[in-house]
Amino acid sequence: MLRQIRLAGRVPRIELASQTGMSRATVTTITAEFLNAGLIEEIARPDNTPDTRRGRPRVDLKIRGAAHALVGAKISYRQLSLILLDFEGEELGELEMQLPAETFSPDRLADLFADAVDRLARNAGLTSDDVSGVGLGIAGIVQAAEGVVYWSPSLSERNVALGEVLTRRLGRPVFVDNDANLVALAEQTFGLGQSHSDFIVVTIESGVGMGIVIGGELYRGTRGCGAEFGHTKVHLDGALCRCGQRGCLEAYVADYALLREALTVPGDDPTAPPAARIETLLNAARAGDATARSIVDRAGRMFALGLANLVNIFDPELIILAGEQMQFDHLFADEVIAAIRTSIVQIDKPPPEVVIHKWGNLMWAKGAAAYALDHVTDLALAGLSDNAA
Amino acid sequence: MLRQIRLAGRVPRIELASQTGMSRATVTTITAEFLNAGLIEEIARPDNTPDTRRGRPRVDLKIRGAAHALVGAKISYRQLSLILLDFEGEELGELEMQLPAETFSPDRLADLFADAVDRLARNAGLTSDDVSGVGLGIAGIVQAAEGVVYWSPSLSERNVALGEVLTRRLGRPVFVDNDANLVALAEQTFGLGQSHSDFIVVTIESGVGMGIVIGGELYRGTRGCGAEFGHTKVHLDGALCRCGQRGCLEAYVADYALLREALTVPGDDPTAPPAARIETLLNAARAGDATARSIVDRAGRMFALGLANLVNIFDPELIILAGEQMQFDHLFADEVIAAIRTSIVQIDKPPPEVVIHKWGNLMWAKGAAAYALDHVTDLALAGLSDNAA
């Protein structure tokens, strides 16, 4: 019912009864508990018409924003992005900071993270102690239920109980998940996924990630290492991947994959920073250089092949391609989308919608905040039923 | 609760209460409805100890087998396999018949099908009218909810409302689904899937099929054409597939894929029937012929690559490889299973279990019967709640 109120924004009790199929008395009882716990509040109707029978103003129910403050965070390459939301999902503040290195020990990361959360809270006139929960999205292989990171490009160790480490250091509950899963959650909570129960989010950064929503629920696999789209194989004994295996999709579409072929592109300077070299490569492709085009085109076709495989396996309603930087425009090209459509099983029905959604790191952080919000809501509701028992 | 009784086989009311968390009074009320509707029956305990308080014999509840008769059917290449089950899942009869052609018009198939169902029922001392529901598994692309077959190798037309056609012809409700989905349902109802909530079944016949169970439910995709594992692409612009596209997994592992490379194998006779040529090829490979080995090995490695992709995407607990014929032994080889393990994302956890389950067509038919049983149960329960309202 709390979810219904959240979705509606503001809603009268009688409408909640008809939406949930519960009796008005049950709705009144349950919402009274929520009111007592401070999770929701009453708000006068905009038109402020008095209840004719009782002669008092009619009220709607809404989520009480001040009930909880939540932090969402996303660790990406040398950058930490944080957002502070209230319980209604309204933004109270944000913070982006450069990280001093690429990989960290768990304790070092915990120190940096605790400082950042504290700074973010103080900027909004709060302290860390006012934060009810923190969500963190991190690239890599994460067992979300236990907050264990089997492997991440941001950590110098494997098999880190990062949720525990951060919870201990912050003194607040911290919930960790794979970052692409949290983008899927953000789409479901705030974005295009609100109106879809089965969709796939594919994220493109230096790696390729995926989040799967099936039947309205995030699907995480049974060991916490599903949705590794970037490491699905698109070529037997193919190009070498950073993971050590051959033929992974990432080994054809990631930055480093493009760059190892870029040496023969006119103007390429192997001593330049990766981003500059990618820029040179893409400019050369746009200018019609055949070598550059060949590199970029193959990446696009491999990406389309991988996406078509997802369609053939999942048959989703919607695929959301989520990436921030312009440098991935070649993967979002019309030819790539068209190539997906010709590589899927053909039936006399329209193919799934493919939507491009360019997000900044703060939107990834917002997904992490949504994850914290879900957990904090569950904890609050569990508290209510403990009191009732 | 009916499912609990079905799973338990026989169970006392008090145990149902503790399993479902319902009160004993609620369990008594609901099971009384089931008893009245004839869906379950009481049966004396084996030890026959009297209830000390009430002085009457203790009873267990069990599904009443005679409540419904169900037919399951599977159409494969030139063959129709049927099984007749009672409501307990006990087999009452089976029937296998050769089909006079490879493809049929919907009406012609309906005639053959109705005859077969009638014959099966009569063999068991029943008539078609005694059959409460029929499940049919068919290769191809099926929208199960509406029983529409977008395409099947057994039908001469596309977009056939086969469920409707068969229901009209038989006068009994017929439920149609993709055959691999029904193998997954059979594994869930009668087989290895009983103890797993997330597993994948991969079927190998002349094509490669897949059924996905997530969270204890069969996942069918949103347009009815998901789980097309055989048409996931394993090579950009690769080998030509029967579907007209290039690089599909089937184009590397199916019979016809092996045979188009078999011409250079010693002893191959291109005028011999396909099964005989496959036999020659596999024998040559076993005898160490390098050409034959190369063909068979590549098929196995491509198959392993495709399965590793499924693991990387789904991270299931279990993969069941279901195929009947010995001719697929090369795909079930230890090297293939080992290749899966080296191609999945490596974490410090054991890889998912891969189990080989050799089934005949009658077990596919049993899955179809389980599908009919689910539908008939739903109809019976809907009837109960209509009466209650």
CATH architecture of the largest domain in chain A: 2-Layer Sandwich
Specify the CATH class of the largest domain in chain A: Alpha Beta
Largest sheet of chain A: 5 strands, mixed
Query: What is the CA-based Rg of chain A, rounded?
Result: 23 Å
CATH topology of the largest domain in chain A: Nucleotidyltransferase, domain 5
Count of alpha/pi helices of chain A: 12
Structural write-up:
Two copies of one chain form a homodimer. The first copy, chain A, has 389 residues and is α/β, with parallel strands linked by helices. Chain A folds into three domains: 62 residues, Arc Repressor Mutant, subunit A (Orthogonal Bundle); 144 residues, ATPase, nucleotide binding domain (Nucleotidyltransferase, domain 5), CATH 3.30.420; 123 residues, Nucleotidyltransferase, domain 5 (2-Layer Sandwich), CATH 3.30.420.40. The first copy, chain A, contains twelve helices and 15 strands. In chain A, the strands form four sheets. The first copy, chain A, has a five-stranded mixed β-sheet with strand order 6-5-4-7-10. In chain A, a hairpin with a 4-residue loop joins strand 8 and strand 9. In chain A, helix 2 packs across helix 3, helix 9 packs across helix 10 and helix 10 crosses helix 11. The longest helix of chain A is centred in the C-terminal third of the chain and has 28 residues. The radius of gyration of chain A is 23 Å and the shape is globular. Chains A and B meet through strand 12 and helix 10 of A and strand 12 and helix 10 of B.
